[in-house]
Amino acid sequence: NMLTARNRDELIHYTQALDRVLMAGWYVIPQYYVDSYRVAYWDFFKRPHITPAYALGMETWWIDPQRQALVRAHQDGSD
Q: Which residues of the chain have pLDDT under 50?
């Protein structure tokens, strides 16, 4: 794991593996009560104009394939 990496190459390998796992999931980290939601997300999601009144509504979001390709190209350094 990252804490027992013996060198920088191993650390990078473990960090990239963790990043893949985290990117594959959908996580919400509850904090404290606020009457609004603060969500960090990649700029390839689209959201409906009308949102649920009493929920974040992330299950109503969808991925825009063109925006996703642009973000992925930027992440890969091939943009």
A: none
